[in-house]
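Worked example 2:
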Amino acid sequence: MSQDILKKVLEVGISLSAEKDFNRLLEKILINVMEITNCDAGTLYLLNDSKLHFKIMRNDTLKTYQGGDGKESGLPPVPLTRSSVCALSIIEDKTIVIDDVRNCSEYDLTGPIKYDAITGYYTCSMLVVPMKNRSGEQIGVLQLINAKDENNQVVGFMKEMVPVVESLASEAAIAIQNARYVDEIRGLFQSFVQVMSSAVDERTPYNLTHTTHMAEYGGRFVDYVNKRCRENGKEEAFDAAHKEELLMSIWLHDIGKLVTPLGVMNKDARLRPEQATAIGHRMEKVELWTEIRALKGEISEEEKNEALAEVEKLRNLVAVVDHAGFIRDEIMAELEAAKNATYTDLAGEKHLWFSEEEYTALTIRKGTLSAAERGIMEGHVVVTDKLLSKINFSVDLSHVREWASSHHELLDGSGYPNRLSGDQIPYEVRMITILDIFDALVADDRPYKPGMPIEKALGILTTMAEKEGKLDPQLTRLFIEGRCWEKEAV
């Protein structure tokens, strides 16, 4: 083996070990082997379910290059029969060298000859090598066609190149096997993450599709950002690994809700169930006491009717307030008037209609959570950070913990938990925040409000970005321009 070839073989090994994308790995294997053998065409097949599946094909004469983008070729798999030299190399576990396809009686070569008749190509020499991993397991085949000499004339493959290609095929098989192991581990981890995320959503009917929607929007958001980069002649902002890291952060952003009390997460009214029950029983007792006092002659019919009307007025006020998305000023004024209102029991003692805790709950201006309950709810991001600190993320996912646990931070410093602002907030977090707020606005499964029309939600996002300085204006515009909530948007 010449020094030049040895050097190329070593370079191939280094190159293959550094490649992380599986499809590019396969393409790189074929390109490198074709370059070392100086051949015109080649095909790489992978063995699966007792069939050889086409993965990469290159033909310099026909200018045909398929499979490097990962798309399926549509070509049928090759069954393991002796009618194909590729299959035969697997069946007999041997390298097949053919100097001249049309003058070879040892093998059935009708396949290449038919291919030539269809394409106008002329197949002459072939080198077919099975790929085997460390344990000798066959995982595929390298098929090389038409070696060329220094004058670019088609010749047979040199004998000294056979062990070189066999060595490269073995090296390639190991690289492919390693890549498969990595993909399997990555797939297992991604499945686990999605299971955990689903566990969060399944805890409550009010969060059932939130993370799934965000992941869908997030994938389109990334694709649209990349599209705009290309249109502006810039490098894409997200490669495959970067996109995966962002999506992983989205899947894990609410993992802390695993320990958030359901009484807080599922609270669909300002009053807790026991508070609403206590107030209802209190009103029923007052109505009963009023009837009794009237029967005893302690109050007149007019006083009875006035007292009953007051109870009904308060009952209606509580009913309206308890589930309202927002309490208007006039309703708040009625509540303030009722704060010191009293009723009289059978012993003639006066009592406030509402305890301090009940009144505080009823006067929550927006939503259903008290300040204390909101603090518990907001604490889910702290728990998210704590839980994710226990995971030994790979280098490619090293930002997941930070991005996932910071999705409630706002550019003006009014977010939580760390009141980050401006450049302290990575743009990936800014993207997640936009997705989170948008889905919260339009979701129709939240306990404290109906779903909002999309255009109104987009108006709120724009206001938060352009006027309030809470969201990134450029990213907000890109999200809206790309209509990233629509399946066919990008």
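The first strand starts at residue 39 and ends at 48. Residues 161-202 form the longest helix (42 residues).
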